[in-house]
UniProtKB/TrEMBL annotation:
CDD domains: UBCc_UBE2O. InterPro entries: UBC (IPR000608), UBQ-conjugating_enzyme/RWD (IPR016135). The lineage of its organism: Eukaryota, Viridiplantae, Streptophyta, Embryophyta, Tracheophyta. This is Ubiquitin-conjugating enzyme E2 26. Gene3D superfamilies: Ubiquitin Conjugating Enzyme.
Amino acid sequence: MDLLRAVIIGAEGTPYHDGLFFFDVFFPASYPKGPPHVYYHSGGLRLNPNLYGCGKVCLSLLNTWSGDKNEKWIPGMSTMLQVLVSIQALILNQDPYFNEPGWAHRRGTQQGELLSQQYNEDTFILSLKTMVYSMRRPPKHFEDFVVGHFYRHGQNILVACKAYMDGAQVGCLAECGIQDVDEGSKSCSKKFRDSVAGCVNMLVKEFTVLGVNDCEKFLTVPKSLNNRVRKVSVL
């Protein structure tokens, strides 16, 4: 087998939750002495410092990024499973902002945490757009998987969007509800709430096509129309 296509599901507690992220893997003649070549299906979106819009995956284990000797590919020890686990745990994590080496020193500072929160908000919007992209153009041989995943998780995704529009912080949601909401400056921004609202109608349309029930109640009124309604009511 020279080619492999894999999908990673975004984990709870991250700005990638409930998303699907597809990777194509090529095993060169040097494998397993050397690492495989991994390509990310980005749809042209850059939602992580380690995942480029061109599909490049920066990971020490793949020898595409610097790292200690024990972090790089070790012949006879490193495996393809380890690559996938590393992508989910080390790349698609809770605070992807700090994956960028030039920003890692800001961890624990007020400025760093604020910038990380803003990055998570932008990332979640890109993740929603990636969901729409995946539903409209599912990777070959994963068509049924994409339909099944979003059929099962569509309601949870819309519930999360509603919570974020109400001010919940990105990544604070679990299937049982809100699990970790910070107060004060860590409440999500108005710009983010408006951006989520703009994505919800696209999601509702795609989920409805898949047969997800009760999506219409999550539809949002466009801001421009809402403003016109207010003006009419005043008159």
